[in-house]
Structures are given as structure tokens and as C-alpha cells.
Amino acid sequence: MGAYVVRRIGISVVQLLGVAFFAFMLIHFVPGNPIANMLGPRATPREIDLVSARLGLTKPLPQQFWLFLVHLVTFHFGQSITFGQSISSLITQRVVPSIALISYGTIVAIVLGVPLAVIAALKAETATDHAVRVFTSVSFAMPTFWSGLILAIIFGLKLGWLPVSGYGAGFGGIVRSLTLPAIALGLSLLAVIVRTLRSSLRHTMALEYVEAARARGFTTRRVLIRHVFRNAVMPTVTVLAVSVGFLIGGTVVLEQVFQIPGLGTLLFQAVEQRDYPLVETLAVLAGSLVVLLNLGTDLLQATVDPRVRPGAKSV
Amino acid sequence: MSLLTIENLRIAFPARGGFTEVVRGVNLEVQQGETVGLVGESGSGKSLSCRSIIRLMPSHAQMTANVQFDGCDVMAMSRKALRDHRAHNVGMIFQDPFSCFNPTKRIGEQVAETLRVNAGMDKSSAHARAIELLASVEIDRPEQRYRAFPHELSGGMRQRVMIAIAISAGPRLLIADEPTTALDVTTQAQILKLIEQRRRDLNMAVLLVSHDFGVIAQACQRVAVMYGGYVVESGPVTEICARPQHPYTRALLESIPSLESAGHHVRRAGIPGQPPSAGETGPGCPFAGRCAFARPECAGVDMSLEVVGDAHATACPFVRTISATSEAGGA
Amino acid sequence: MSDLATRPVMKRRRIYRLWRSFLRAQNWELSTGLVIIAIMVLAALLAPYIAPYHPNQINIVDSLQAPSWHHWMGTDFVGRDVFSRVLYGLRVDLLVVAVITYLGLIVGVTLGTISGYIGGWFDAVIGRVADTVIAFPFIVLVLAVVAIVGPGLKGVGIGIVIVGWALYFRLSRSEMLVMREQPFIMATKALGYSHLRAIFRHALPNLIRTSLVYSTVDVVVNMLVIAGLSYLGLGQQAPGADLGSIIASGQSYLLSAWWITTIPGVVLMLFGIGVSLIGDGITRGDLTLGSL
Ligand SMILES: Nc1ncnc2c1ncn2[C@@H]1O[C@H](COP(=O)(O)OP(=O)(O)O)[C@@H](O)[C@H]1O
Ligand code: SF4
Ligand SMILES: [Mg+2]
Questions:
Q1: Are A19 and C143 an interchain contact pair (Cβ–Cβ within 8 Å)?
Q2: What is the CATH class of B4-104+149-258+278-330?
């Protein structure tokens, strides 16, 4: 187990380096001069050179990358050009709403998705199963920003139950203001959860040990919860971790729809203003989050399923 | 009164525009404390037949029968009664010891779970009893093995644990569905010996399923031979080994190298041809396509068992003429 | 051995069977999906002939008209016909999504096939790049590219292709690893065919199927990303319209003119449902994101 953990962490470190390198190289590979774009059409070549020098873009590439890494590791992300503030303090101000929205959306997806997947698996290939499949196809096909707008029309503007913009104060206020975007986000994730869980439940329910458990006289409930669900849920957890990138994407757009002052809004503003250092930092952080979550699920999987641990000792 | 009586068991699965019957009117009886064999090629309906005893059917299967266990009507049992029946009356061992354990739970916990749920034991006494049970199926160092995961044990070892779970409630009947098929020959003999030992100690009856007549002949008093969803011959093992009547039983016996079947010196490696798959055969004898003695009338045979000797019955109505011809041919 | 060797033949039979079940309407997912997508593609192709108005023709007098015989989907805040704009928007979106998705597929499958076949340092390098690209949240990376290239569908397209190839690379690389050990590939080598010929004549047709099936998921995701970025104002630029930007333009009139926002969203949704149904029909629901 120890050796596995060390090796798995090693892989993640390499991936993190890759993420940083990729974000760093983007500026050099993609056509267009970002500094010229940033300063707008009226900037003189001299001004462009000056700003490039200030951002360290005139140094040799390896040196630039090394400085970039050092700054990342020490959390010195530098100054934002547009906000005139340090990037780290900007991120600290904006991180909570985004994390709250992603978590809330994931909870919505799980609360809706798990029962649907269980029903679809138990009634596989019946009308109920087809209905669930169509429903998840619809929820997957809806653009999140659009379903957010529709929810806002119905529950915000017509019925007046929930706010349609802003970020409330206190726990209750936050929950109220994030409910509609979280539902929109959750609906977009639903299909992935339901399909993955349904197919692994079906796979697990067909295994002989499940029949053996039923033959012992265990209740269906016990068999489902203790023996099927526990073993079938891991692929879904993995898929959820992989989907975080997808959720972050949904959040970026939904924060605009509902005027939530989160990291998505920050990224959007940074892109609009061509605040390149800020964009780069946010991209690296988002990529790192995905890498770390994947690491987390792999280690969790090794704890849950003894067969995954290489070198598990024989008794 | 017999412990178990199955009458007219029929099991069908939905198929193109109707149902395909894969078990077609099986009768079976098991007395208190005896070992009964169920033998036949794979696909003949053995597993489904023994699962009918605890009504453990695939979700879309249609089952009709009269199943009496110790005077209780299994088909009429409520869900609760059925769970109790599965938990206390009948224990079951499966063919593949690799796949019939939950891979993520320690094997001791799987034994203890059965004890806690079915015998209402608390955690510590279930733990102690599980270790006793592991010891009783001849697992050495049971305390350490308690903590092992299924994939860490050998096939034979896992089959022992399976037996421990199956007998944990002291059942009246142990169903062993091909318990040794996945094991090597040495382990196979050990497991059969263990089952026999446990049977005597606990005074259980055993229903032993196998596709190998050698295994059945070694362990059982009575045997039912299945083919294409029918019982085609049944009777005492010694009698059937000495005087097999049904052409399928003969072919089956001839295909075992270790057994000397009376009057036959020609030995074949197996039965030529493939067993029919479910629902492939219409009315009449399902063996007709492979039977050396088939005749036009075979298409009209009703497959009911006719007595041919002391507690010995067969579904082939032409056995008398057949034994005459084959004896003439063999001599 | 023999069943592996006959695989290509079985594939063809499978396609034949799919086609037959389509005709007999047994595979309702496939039939419904194909009908939906066929109608949308036709409508987009024939937009100049079908559209009753010029998509950008302003007519302030007729602004914010509800759907009627004159304007099937109503008009927007400057009186442009929403139906005509949706048709032209769909035209833009379908074209962009098809080009970038299948460009990504071609790049990914080509690299993946070669990588899986030759292995070595080539495989190692491209493999690491693919891992890295996949680690980034899709939209974040596309946004980063847009930040550099500037707003517009060009930046969005570049961004999506930079990310999009990676999954096809992984899929076809792992298929190639399996395929390369199979009898009919081995046989071509034994017969003295060149490696490239072995790959392209025999392995590629088999490999590409998996990627095509996955593209039914990818095309929907890409469509939603394009719409999302256009909604944010970073995709299609005014006065041109695509579905995302039409939705955004109606946002201020949600209560008074629901149609501007609602209808293009329904069209996007129908596209997604149609493509998903085709995917379901082909795989009968056994391919999930999790199986990648
Ligand atoms: N779940 C099922 N669905 C459809 N057919 C089945 C199912 N289970 C078993 N059968 C059919 O029933 C027949 C008997 O199966 P089984 O009792 O498992 O045979 P055996 O144990 O003798 O090998 C087989 O031919 C098989 O095709
Ligand atoms: S009934 Fe006919 S086919 Fe069947 S076993 Fe007897 S002789 Fe053979
Ligand atoms: Mg069987």
C-alpha cells in the first residue's frame, strides 16, 4: 500500500508540473501577442515592450518558467493588472461562492441521480428505465446557462420564491441565492451520474456473490446497500472527480447568469480585460484542483477495494 | 415424510413472442439426512432446479411447482417466511468460489454477518462463532484467516469458507451446486469429504449437483439424471451405475474413464454432439438428436418416468428393446 | 483465434443489422435521433431559402412581438425575426461544432493510432501532453485561449481543438494496443505488408468506430461550450448571431419577451437529445463516460 501511495503521488506531481508548463506555454504557442491585445490597439510598440519587460516576458523561457513555478509553489501569484490587487487576495475573496456553488450543485446531482440510477437499474429495460434515460438525456442536452435562465423566470420572477441574482449573506442567504444555479448545475451533471451508477449497479447485481447473499436470506435492502451499492459506487465517485472540470465550466457561465461574485466571474473579467497573469494563475489552479481530486479518488479506491492495492500481503 | 418434495417444477423465460420452458416438469424428492445427486450436462436445468427450493429465481423467470419443505409450502411462503426459510432451513454452496464472495469484505466478516443477521448474534459472539465455524471446516489459523480478503485465499480455501457460511445456521438441507467443478482433483476430494463429514455431524440432507457422474457416484445414495429440462432417469446410485437404462445415462457413464460400466468395453471420450440449448427442442424426447437408438416414435414420447426396477425409473419407453439390442451388440 | 479474425466481418453485419432495425423502427432511439438531426441539418443548410426575413434586418416598429403568423418565433428588441436568426444561428453553430469536433477526432485518432502502434518515446511524450490537457477544466482552457487570441469563434474553435483531440487520442491508443496483438494485424505483417498499410487498411476502420461513438457525446458537449461562450459574449460577435448570443440578447426581456431566450435554448436541447439518441441507438446505452 505504501509503495502504491508513493507512486501514485509521484504521478500527480508530474501531472501538476505538466499543468503549470502547459498554462505557461500557451502564451507562446497560441497565435497573437497577448500584451498587444491586453493594451489595446492604441498601445505603442514601446509601451508593449515596457509591459512585457515588467511581466518578465523578455527573460529567457526556462528562467521565466522557473520563476513561474517558484511563485506558484510559494503562493506568490503576483499582481493583477486590471484589479491593481494581489492575485492571491483576489482569489481568497472570490473562492468561497464558487466552491459553495460546485458543492451544492454536486449535492443536487447526487440527491436526484442516485435514486434515479437505482430505480433504472432495478427496472432495467422497462418503460421506467427508458423514461429515466430520456429524462437524463434532456437534462444533459440543456445548456446550463439556459436552464438557469428558465429556472430564474419560473421560480424567481414569476413565483418569486428565490432570488435570481447576487450572493446572499449568512448561511441561509447563501443557500437561497445559490439554489437556482445549483439546480441548473446539478441537472447538467445528472446524466453522467445516472448512467455510470446504473451500469455499475447492473453489473454488480449480476455477480454471483449477490445471489449468494440473497440465498442466505438477507433482505433485498441489506443486499442492495451492504453488498451491491458499496461495491458499485466507486466508478461513479471516479467519474464525479473527473467531472469537476466540467462543473467548473458550468460554474463560470452560471456565475454570470446569476451575478455571483465567484472565481468564474473573476476568470471571465480577466479574460475580457486580457489580464494574462490572472488568467494563467486561475487556469493552473483549476487544473491542479482536478489533478488533486483524481489523486484523492484513486487513494480512496485503494482503501475501499483491497484488490486495487498492489502488494497486498497474503495471509 | 420426506424432507423435500418438488412436484411438476416448470421454469420458463420470456423469449420471442412467448415463453421458453427450460425446466419442464421436474419431480424430485430428498429424505432426511440422505445425499441426493443431480447430474447432467451444463444447461440441462440443474441450477435452476435447485434454486427453486429457495425460490431464488432470475427476475424475469416464470416458475410454477409444488415445493414442500418439511411440510411447508415454499411457493405459498410470504417474503418474510421465505427469508427465514433461506436463512435457517437451507444452505447453499455455489460453483465458483472466486465470485461468490463480496470482494471488498474480509471473509470472516462475511461469515459473521450471516450469524448476526440470521442468528441475531451480537458482534463479539458472532466473531467468536465465525472463528469456530472456520475451524470446523478445517481452516487452520482461523483467527488470522478471519481477516483475509477473498482474493487472498485459494479456491479450495474459499469453498471451505462458503461451506462454513452455508452450515452456519444448522440447515436441514445443504444444496451444493457444482461445488468442486472449479477445483483441482485433490482439492475436489477434500471438499467432498468435508461435505460428507459435516452432513453426518449436523444430520443434514445434501443435494449435490454435478455434471460429473464420478463425483455423484462417490458421494450420493440416490441420483436424478437431467437432460434438456427433464429428469430422464432416477434411482439408487449403485443400481444406476450397474444397470443404466436411459440411453443418455449410458452415454454419460461411458464418458467417465474411472468407472467400469457393466457390459461395455467400448469407451468414448464424451457424448457426441452438443446438448440442445434452452427451448431448442420441441415436444418428445430432447435427446433424440444425439441418441444412438432414436426412432420416429421418439418425437411423441411424453417424458414421464416409468418404473423399471426397484425405485428405479426412466423416461425412455424403449429401454427394453434397447438393452436387448445393445447386449446383443456388445456380446 | 477464429472469432477475433472474423471481427471486421461481424462489424459490417452489425451495421447492417442496425440499418434494418432502423427501417423496422425497432431501434426507436436511433430512428428518432436521426430524424431530429436530419431535420436540423436540412433547416440549417436551407436557411437562406427558408428564412422569411434577413436575420439582421432591424425593424424597430415591430420590436418584441410575440410569436405569430408573421413571426413564428416572435421578434427581438430591435424587431429582428427570431426564427430567421435561429435558422442562421443554427447554421453557424452546426458548422463550427462539426468542424472542430471532427478536426479534434482526426488529430486524436491519428496520433493515438500511431502512438499505440509504435510506442516508445513518441507515445510517452504525446501521452503526457494528453494527460495534461485532460486535467484542465475544458472551459477554463478555452477561455485562456480566447484571452490570448481574442473574442470570436476562431479563439473558441482553437481552444476546443487543443483540448478535444486528447480523449480521442486515449481511446484510439488503447484500442490500438489491443488491436496490434490481434491475428489479422499479425497476419498482415506475416504477409509482408508494411506497418503503415497494416494500420490504415486494417486497424483504422475498426478503431475509428469507438471514437465515432464517443463523438456523439463530444459533439453535444462542444455545442454547449460554444453556446456558453457566445452567451458570455466571447464567441460569435455581433451583428452575427448564433444560438448562444440570441439567448443572451433576450436576457433583459425574460418576462416581457420570453421567446427570445426560450426558443433557441429548446433548439440547442433538441440537438443534444437527437445526438444522444443516436449514440444510445448505436450502443444501446452501454457506453458511458465512465467506461472511458
Ligand atoms: N437468467 C436466465 N435467463 C434466460 N435463460 C436462462 C437463465 N438462467 C438459465 N437459463 C437457461 O436455463 C437453462 C438451464 O440453466 P441451468 O439451470 O443454469 O443449467 P445447469 O445448471 O444444468 O447448467 C439453460 O439452458 C439456460 O439457457
Ligand atoms: S426416447 Fe428415443 S431418443 Fe429419447 S432416449 Fe429413448 S430412444 Fe433415445
Ligand atoms: Mg449450473
A1: no
A2: alpha beta
Claim: this prediction has a pTM higher than 0.90: no
State whether the beta carbon of B86 lies less than 6 angstroms from ligand 1: no
What is the average per-residue pLDDT within B213-233?
Answer: 92
* B319 close to ligand 2 (CB < 6 Angstrom): no
In the predicted model, is pLDDT for residue A209 greater than 60? yes
Return the sign of the alpha-carbon dihedral for residues C116, C122, C127, C129. negative
* CA–CA gap between residue B249 and residue B40 (Å, rounded): 9
Quick one: pLDDT at residue C169? 93
Domain ranges of chain B: 4-104+149-258+278-330
Q: Which chains touch A (3 or more CB pairs under 8 A)?
A: B, C
Tell whether A63 is within 8 A of chain C (Cβ). no
Going from the Cα of B231 to the center of ligand 3, the distance in angstroms, rounded, reads: 15
Examine chains C and B and say if they touch (3+ CB pairs below 8 A).
no
Give the pLDDT band of residue C256 (cuts 50, 70, 90): confident
- Answer whether A220's CB lies under 8 Å from C109's CB: no
What is the predicted ipTM? 0.85
Closest CA to C140 of C10, C251, C234, C265: C234
CA distance A143 to A139: 9
Task: Please write the tens of the pLDDT for every residue from B46-103.
Answer: 999 999 999 999 888 999 999 999 999 999 999 999 999 999 999 999 988 888 898 8
d(CA C18, CA C20): 5
User: In this structure, is the dihedral angle defined by the CA atoms of residues C14, C16, C18 and C20, taken in order, positive or negative?
Assistant: negative
Write down all domains in chain A, each with its CATH number in brackets.
Answer: 1-82+273-315 (no CATH), 95-266 (1.10.3720.10)
